[in-house]
Every structure is written in structure tokens, then in C-alpha cells.
Design brief:
It is a single chain. By secondary structure, the protein is α+β, with helices and mostly antiparallel strands. The protein contains 18 helices and 27 strands. The strands form 8 sheets. Strands 9-10-11-2-12-25-13 form a 7-stranded mixed sheet, with helices on one face. A 5-stranded mixed sheet has the order 19-18-20-14-23. Strand 18, helix 13 and strand 19 form a beta-alpha-beta unit.
């Protein structure tokens, strides 16, 4: 194993390392083998995490700016940009509310977004929004008047209203602190908050929303059951697929997902090439081999893990982008309806057995870092939010395997070792398939490490690798006992504890398929160590949203994190840095230091709309 103290740029040939390191520095390699992303609560997630401290630990977002999408070329080159997609396009959809097969990369490509957070400038860049105004318990959103759908119709607040109605129906997190909404005029929409609310939190949520719900297509679901829109495959229906971003949908098959230049997009003059295509692949080795041999099948891959020795073999024209923290990472999910894994003692024992530093060492110490305390707060933000109270929390041994503590927990709960396997009080062995996504190489490594350690301790687990959609579908349908799933919802919002804490409790990304009872009162040890405290987990997290400042929110965050640390609705294990790829043999890249575009997810999707990635003429 290589020395983890070396800088990544010292290990990877410097010609491979993009000078766009910027605020994030020579951050470690990241990723889960590219993937197709995974949907969240209907308002979006990029399927990523990690923090390098560039977004402040209190979740502040700096000020706001425009998206900088001015200028560009109108000389359109007949050229296709081929980007990698680790999925069968026919098993994905542009319907953002489909909880199982919504495609995050395709949505980012095809739709305009409200605003985008830049890790480079620590500011939001307004995109579809022209202005957002926060006045007490009211948020006024003013949208650009030049927004259009790809069929030429105007985007108006009728579309926004349908979007918010559907988000309410499916339980989006934003409705945890929005009481009602109002259409003011065609381009002005008002959010009436439930009470005093931290503006930073609202901005993070709005910054994770897209103009992706045209009334013409989605009004049919306003009065329908939530499951209807959550299972609808837009492209397979008779409803026309229209987009609001730089690219309009054309068609798709098992190998390709095709888009063409959307001439109705307000900043289309920035886009100088004709078509954009996702090329399907199954294993990360496919784009890695293409980048090594110069096969030129892929012009970009939005997220892909690659070891330094792999990167060194890539062609000179393959550019690695390392400017964006992830705020995402490897966690463990339990089915709380299962009599064994729904037992707190078993979850706590598992936490004691897993050595989080070992996971990082095995999966890539330059790309990842462990949670110092499993408590539902992003690792780099824990100290800032917990303060002196952190010493009261159980760290479960960040760099050790605590088998004695785990044994004591299980024995106290009535478990016993029978023929080398831990057995429940009812005589059932602790046995399960451990679900993990196929093709996510770093996840596979961490999964194998966990299964090995738990089996050495006396569990009977088997690695069950599934295609991404099947893996996620098993969780949604509660057809599992234990497995891995991301424990932070991703993006800069994860620096504000409300979002990751609520993600673990409600898990809207999986329709609550982990069956955690977050609404009932629980009695747990008090934070002081003297006596007990009663807490309603979801209500406590939602209380965070009512505090207008971080100082007022801090004690509430600490109580919610204390509950998470004790009851472990999910197990917070590892976070990471990001890694994205673009090629420069046929493409121009023009992103200077200080440019907000350097720090916005994801370069292959965001840069073309601003003219930062263009075809060579």
C-alpha cells in the first residue's frame, strides 16, 4: 500500500492532473465507478459527497451571483460529445420524481436549474432564477422571462406550481418547512414558510432543484396517487418529452441516449456543437481502457474512480477535474423491520466491529476519509457543530475493531455464539446477503472489507452485488436485510446537518424502504450521561429548520446527532472527494482560476452551457 501522506498530484503524473485544483487543492481521487447517480427526495441529488472545507462548516453559502452564461459561439460544429453512462438508458428516465430509475446525469444535462452552488467561490450562481428574496417567513422567487421548453412554449409559474404540488405529494424535504405556495404572476412564485427558517438551508434546497416538471406532462399526476408519478417512465409514455436546458431529448436505446442542441435555451449561443450522447457501459474498466488505449469512445465521464497508477496510463489528452467536494459517501443501511438488523444492539455491535480507517486505507486513502463520529453529520463539519459535546459521543472506534464491546452488546441483548455464528434469542443466526452496487469499484472494496470483518466476528454474511437499479430497487421494496447506501444526500447542502440527518431518517430517496420509525417517541440516554431523554427523531430534525441562525440551531443539531449516534438509523462510515473527466483532443476547455464554473457539478454538463467546453473548429 502506498504512503497515504503523499499528495495525489505527486503520485499521478503531473501532466494528467488538471491545474484546476483551485480551492480544493490536489484533492484525492473520488467516485463510485461513475454510476448513473441515484435519485433523492424528488428535488434532486447528484449522488455525491465529501468535503474539503471549502464550503464553511456552518453551511453558509456566501453571496449570490449570476451563472456567467454570457457570450459564446453561434458557429455550430456538427459534432457529438459522447459521455459515459453506467446504466442501460432504457432502464432510466428523465422523470425526476421516479424514485427508482430517474437519471441524475441526464437530468443535469437536459434541464435548467434554479441555482448552482460553486465550491470555487462559495457562492450560488443563479441560473433559471433571476432573483430570490428572503423576507422573514416569505421567500419570493423571480424566474427569468426567457425560460422556454424545448417545444417552444414558455416556462411559467404554472409549471413551477405543478412541480411544488408533486414535491408535496411525494414528501420532498422542502415541504418540511414550506407551509404553502402562491403564484404571484407568470414569473414570480412565493413560498410561505412554516415559521422562522435559516435562509442558508432554503438556498441549499432550492439550489438542488431543476426546471424539470412541465405542467403539460405532469399536471396529470397532481390529483393522482404518489406512486403513479414515482413509477412513471416518461420516455415510454405517449407524453412528449420536453426539456428546459441546453439539450433536447431525441431518443434512446440500450446503448445510447441521444440529445440535440436545444435552440429554445436562453443561452444556446454558448453551445457550439450539435449533439450530446450518453454511451452506456457496465464496468468502470470500459472508460478506463478507452482513456488508456486512445479508443476515443468517450469524450467525458462525469464521475469515475481510478487509482493513480491507472490515471498515469491515460492518454495525455484525458483531463482530470478535481475542484469539487462530494458531500457523499459509503454508509450502511438496515431494514428496521428485520428482527435482527432492526435490533439496536446488533447495529451498535456492527459499528464497533467495523474499522472505518481500514475502509479508507483499502478503498483509497487519497480519495476518502472516515467519519470521526457516526452521527449523521458530514465528517469535516462534525467538530464545528458538536463542539465540546463531541467528547460525549460514542465513536465506536474509528481506527479499531472493538470486538469486546460488540460481544458485550450482543450478549446483553440475549444473543449467543452457536457453532461459530452469533444467534438471536429466538435461535436465528445473524445471516444475510449484504447488498452492494455492481461496478462501483471502491464500494465493492469497502463492502468486501466489512463482510470479511463481520464474518470473522461470527456473522454469516455474503456479498450480493446487484446492477444499480436492482440494488436500489431492493431497498425501495424493503427486500433486504442489510447493505450499503449513501449516508449523505450530496451537494453543498449536506454541510447543513438538517439534510443528512433527515435523509437517514426519512430516506425519501428510497421511499423510506429501510422502514425506520422516525415519528414515534424514543427514550435514550441523555447527552449528559445522567438519566434519559425522550425524543421524536423526525420532529427534532425538522425543528432545526425553524431556527433562523446557525447559533440557535446548534443545540437542536446536537440532540438530533446524539440520537443518530445512539440509535444508528443508518451507519455513517466514509466520505470522499470528487473526480470528473473530460478530453481535450477534440474539445476546448476554458476555465480559469476563480471562475465559478470550476466548482459546479458536473463539468461535462455545466461547462458546455456556458461555453467553457466547446468543439474545436
Amino acid at each position: 500500500m502506498s504512503d497515504s501522506t503523499n499528495e495525489y498530484s505527486d503520485v499521478v503524473d503531473r501532466r494528467k492532473f488538471l491545474t484546476l485544483a483551485g480551492a480544493s487543492g490536489a484533492a484525492a481521487l473520488a467516485g463510485c465507478g461513475s454510476g448513473d447517480g441515484t435519485p433523492t427526495d424528488g428535488s434532486g441529488s447528484d449522488g455525491s459527497d465529501g468535503s474539503d472545507g471549502s464550503d464553511s462548516s456552518d453551511g453558509s453559502d456566501g453571496s449570490d451571483g449570476s451563472d456567467g452564461s454570457d457570450g459564446g459561439s453561434t458557429n455550430v460544429v456538427d459534432q457529438t460529445h459522447a459521455s459515459g453512462l453506467q446504466a442501460d438508458p432504457t432502464n432510466r428516465t428523465l422523470n425526476p420524481h421516479n424514485t427508482q430509475i430517474s437519471s441524475e446525469p441526464a437530468r443535469r444535462l437536459a434541464f435548467d436549474r434554479y441555482a448552482a452552488y460553486s465550491f470555487e467561490t462559495q457562492e450560488f450562481q443563479l441560473a433559471a432564477l433571476d432573483e430570490w428574496e428572503f423576507d422573514g417567513e416569505t421567500v419570493t422567487l423571480t424566474f427569468r422571462e426567457d425560460l422556454s421548453w424545448s417545444d417552444g412554449s414558455d416556462v411559467t409559474t404554472e409549471d413551477i406550481d405543478v412541480q411544488f404540488q408533486i414535491l408535496e405529494k411525494i414528501g420532498s424535504a422542502i415541504w418540511g418547512y414550506v407551509e404553502s405556495t402562491e403564484v404571484v404572476d407568470d414569473y414570480t412564485y412565493q413560498l410561505n414558510l412554516t415559521g422562522p427558517t435559516n435562509p442558508v438551508m432554503v438556498k441549499h434546497q432550492l439550489g438542488n432543484m431543476w426546471i424539470d416538471t412541465p405542467a403539460a406532462a405532469f399536471e396529470q399526476f397532481v390529483d393522482a396517487e404518489a406512486t403513479e408519478v414515482q413509477t412513471w417512465n416518461w420516455e415510454d409514455s405517449d407524453t412528449e418529452v420536453i426539456t428546459s436546458g441546453a439539450w433536447a431529448y431525441v431518443d434512446k436505446n440500450q446503448q445510447q441516449w441521444n440529445f440535440e442542441r436545444n435552440t429554445e435555451f436562453h443561452s444556446i449561443d454558448n453551445v457550439n456543437f450539435s449533439t450530446y450522447r450518453f454511451d452506456s457501459y457496465q464496468e468502470a474498466s470500459a472508460p478506463q481502457q478507452d482513456f488508456t488505449t486512445g479508443g476515443k469512445r468517450f469524450d467525458s465521464v462525469w464521475s469515475m474512480f481510478a487509482a493513480p497508477e491507472t490515471v498515469n496510463a491515460f492518454q495525455d489528452y484525458v483531463m482530470e477535474v478535481q475542484t469539487i467536494p462530494a458531500k457523499w459517501g459509503y454508509g450502511m443501511i438496515f431494514n428496521h423491520d428485520d428482527p435482527i438488523f432492526g435490533d439496536r444492539a446488533v447495529r451498535q455491535a456492527i459499528a464497533h466491529v467495523i474499522n472505518r480507517e481500514e475502509l479508507v486505507a483499502n478503498a483509497g486513502p487519497r480519495t476518502k476519509f472516515p467519519a470521526s463520529v457516526p452521527c449523521g453529520i458530514a465528517p469535516r463539519d462534525i467538530e464545528g457543530w458538536l463542539g465540546d459535546a463531541q467528547s460525549n459521543f460514542e465513536d465506536y472506534g474509528v481506527g479499531s475493531t472493538n470486538t469486546e464491546e460488540a460481544t458485550q452488546l450482543l450478549e446483553d441483548a440475549g444473543y449467543s455464539m452457536q457453532n461459530g455464528t452469533w444467534t438471536s434469542p429466538d435461535g436465528e443466526p445473524i445471516s444475510a446477503n449484504y447488498l452492494t452496487p455492481g461496478g462501483w469499484t471502491d464500494f465493492t472494496t469497502m463492502t468486501e472489507t466489512i463482510v470479511d470483518r463481520l464474518n470473522e466476528f461470527g456473522f454469516d454474511l455474503s456479498v450480493a452485488s446487484r446492477p444499480t437499479s436492482d440494488w436500489q430497487g431492493a431497498f425501495i421494496e424493503s427486500n433486504f436485510k442489510v447493505g450499503t447506501f449513501y449516508w449523505l444526500p450530496g451537494q453543498a447542502r449536506s454541510s447543513f446537518p438538517y439534510f443528512p440527518l433527515r435523509h437517514q431518517l426519512a430516506l425519501a430517496a428510497l421511499n423510506g424502504g429501510h422502514n425506520y420509525d422516525a415519528e414515534s417517541e424514543q427514550t435514550i440516554p441523555s447527552m449528559s450521561g445522567d438519566g434519559e431523554m425522550t425524543i421524536s427523531p423526525l420532529a427534532k430534525v425538522d425543528e432545526i429548520a425553524t431556527k433562523p441562525t446557525n447559533e440557535e440551531a446548534m443545540p437542536i443539531v446536537q440532540e438530533a446527532a446524539w440520537h443518530n449516534n445512539y440509535d444508528l438509523p443508518m451507519l455513517s462510515l466514509v466520505s470522499k472527494f470528487e473526480q470528473s473527466w473530460v478530453t481535450t483532443d477534440e474539445w476546448n476547455v476554458s476555465v480559469e482560476e476563480g471562475d465559478p464554473a470550476r466548482g459546479i457539478k458536473w463539468p461535462p454538463f455545466w461547462w458546455p452551457r456556458q461555453g467553457k467546453l466547446s468543439a474545436q473548429e
